[in-house]
Design a protein that fits this description.
Oligomer: heterodimer
Helix content of chain A: under 10%
Largest sheet of chain B: 5 strands, mixed
Number of helices of chain A: 0
Shape of chain B: globular
Largest interface: A-B, 29 and 24 residues
Structural class of chain B: mainly beta
Strand content of chain B: over 45%
Number of helices of chain B: 0
Largest sheet of chain A: 7 strands, mixed
Strand content of chain A: over 45%
Order of helices and strands of chain A: EEEEEEEEEEE
Radius of gyration of chain A: 13 Å
Distance between the termini of chain B: 39 Å
Order of helices and strands of chain B: EEEEEEEEE
Number of strands of chain A: 11
Helix content of chain B: under 10%
Strand order of the largest sheet of chain B: 1-9-8-3-4
Distance between the termini of chain A: 36 Å
Chain lengths: 114, 113
Amino acid sequence: DGGITQSPKYLFRKEGQNVTLSCEQNLNHDAMYWYRQDPGQGLRLIYYSQIVNDFQKGDIAEGYSVSREKKESFPLTVTSAQKNPTAFYLCASSRDRGQNTEAFFGQGTRLTVV
Amino acid sequence: LAKTTQPISMDSYEGQEVNITCSHNNIATNDYITWYQQFPSQGPRFIIQGYKTKVTNEVASLFIPADRKSSTLSLPRVSLSDTAVYYCLVGPHSGGGADGLTFGKGTHLIIQP
């Protein structure tokens, strides 16, 4: 089945540690995105990538880093510089930036920092 | 970037038709209107997309008036499983601005028995 996979579903880390969230898609999509969602809130864009080896900051990029070495993979690292890392993280992909391209989301990773 | 405004929450009952309206007064000529559905602890799911007039698929209809300054998502005969958050997005992309998908807080729809 084609789709977008995030792992792990739940993640616990100690304060001050970096942690990397995985996002893989086999839809052959060019564009990939990372969002953060806090309780009762909408999705806020962290980073996005329109093509391999290229990515842009979203609205809340501080304390996060990404890479896009392969078309199918877009890992997100939550660094120790992120002041409030506990949140629900969502990865998405879409075919391209053109019109009428539906976005597909993963099931999310819930990160808890203690 | 066209900003959207939609109700924070709505209530309805099983078997009813539910209409959720989204305002987007500064929609651009090349913008599309897209709706997503999100269940708790899951990623959003694409429901429907349109440019003008009416679009219908197996789960919903989307009504867009001639001036395109608003749109209405219509869910026929809702069930308890339609309880979710519904997001309205506007942009030249599938879901938002030119450089990404921009989500607001959405409308929390609660369906009661």
